[in-house]
Design brief:
Order of helices and strands: EEEHEEEHEEHHEEEEHHHHHHH
Structural class: alpha+beta
Distance between the termini: 49 Å
Strand order of the largest sheet: 4-5-6-8-7
Helix content: 25-40%
Radius of gyration: 21 Å
Number of helices: 11
Shape: globular
Strand content: 15-25%
Largest sheet: 5 strands, antiparallel
Length: about 350
């Protein structure tokens, strides 16, 4: 593959050197970073507690501890940690437990702190709930909502493609989650991909994994090369400053992949991986963006994909505007039940429902 721009001109940031995590632990076994305190009793933010109790802020009243959870099996890996399916011993409720070892690089530690803070304040039906967070013996544990149908990546392995009516339902829910993150929390997710969009048997779709997310006002975090490069926008690969629209590019790539049954930059007749890492980055930056074949999809769907996958971020529609797109509106009165599709799939765990 030839290119007008040499690969070496693509700017990739270099990971920071490892910093001993003991600098951030108190003698009592509490993990501390700025105004965030975390121990085996749970998490609290000092600034929020001081507002409520200026003199003596007490620990948050938690409904259960880590000892109340029993592990069923490992169900995946998120940014920086392993995810286990666990069950509450007394009430039988299932959770996803993200376990993060803290003997890691400082840059990754900072992202975990960011994830804790984003999870702590998130209140949106289209963002995976983080019920509790704990720190004990060098491990941070996040008790997350369990989505029993897995991720879009898991679903695609079974169904190969997702039809337009169902995709419209998926898009609407993800867009509502992005509107919340972008407009209310001012958060750029930075890793929208099939494995970070989870679904349950009710047909609810929720965004998860804020391990590489950034608050838009944190300028120093907006030009870093983090996340999954396959779904990364051209401006991020170039090392340019980016904003919420980078998530929209990623969403468009995910939706197109769900529709055509393979990653958009890899032709279906080719074996996966035919592009090397640098060849793929170069293709995303230099070549025209992928589009939905007009002979296979509706004009509304093709327009939706085009509204997301634009090389110039200024040409992409916002998450709020995309909620009003004709493709989303087209199926709102059709009573499309994503739960029916989920019921036809093999459950992740037999006892989950």
């Amino acid at each position: 593959m030839k290119s007008k721009k040499p690969l070496k001109q693509l700017k990739l940031s270099v990971p920071a050197q490892e910093t001993p995590i003991t600098n951030f632990l108190t003698a009592s076994g509490t993990f501390q970073d700025g105004d965030l305190l975390l121990n085996q009793k749970g998490l609290r933010l000092i600034s929020e507690e001081k507002e409520a109790r200026p003199s003596d802020a007490k620990e948050v009243d938690l409904q259960f501890s880590l000892e109340d959870l029993e592990t069923i099996k490992v169900i995946g890996k998120g940014s920086g940690g392993v995810v286990q399916l666990v069950r509450h011993k007394w009430v039988g409720k299932l959770f996803a437990l993200k376990v993060i070892q803290m003997n890691i690089q400082e840059t990754i530690r900072k992202q975990i702190v960011q994830e804790l803070k984003i999870n702590q304040g998130s209140q949106c039906p289209h963002v995976v709930v983080c019920y509790h967070s704990f720190y004990h013996n060098g491990v941070i544990s996040l008790v997350l909502e369990y989505m029993d149908c897995g991720s879009l990546a898991d679903i695609l392995k079974q169904v190969k493609i997702i039809l337009e009516p169902y995709l419209a339902v998926v898009c609407k829910q993800v867009l509502k989650g992005l509107v919340y993150l972008h407009h209310e929390r001012h958060v750029i997710h930075r890793d929208i991909k099939p494995s970070n969009l989870l679904v349950n048997h009710k047909g609810e779709v929720k965004i998860t994994d804020f391990g590489v997310s950034a608050v838009a006002s944190s300028m120093g975090q907006r030009d870093t090369f983090v996340g999954t490069y396959n779904y990364m926008s051209p401006e991020r690969i170039r090392g340019n400053t980016y904003d919420y629209s980078s998530d929209i590019w990623s969403l468009g790539m995910v939706v197109l992949e769900c529709a055509i049954g393979h990653f958009p930059y890899i032709p279906s007749e080719q074996e996966e991986g035919w592009l090397s890492f640098y060849e793929l980055l170069e293709t995303i930056v230099e070549q025209p963006p992928p589009s939905a074949p007009p002979d296979q999809f509706s004009p509304e769907f093709c327009s939706f994909i085009s509204s997301c996958i634009q090389k110039d971020p200024r040409d992409r529609m916002s998450s709020l505007d995309l909620l009003g797109h004709p493709f989303i509106k087209k199926f709102e009165d059709k009573d499309v039940d994503l739960g029916i599709l989920m019921d036809s799939l093999e459950p992740s765990v037999d006892s989950a429902r």
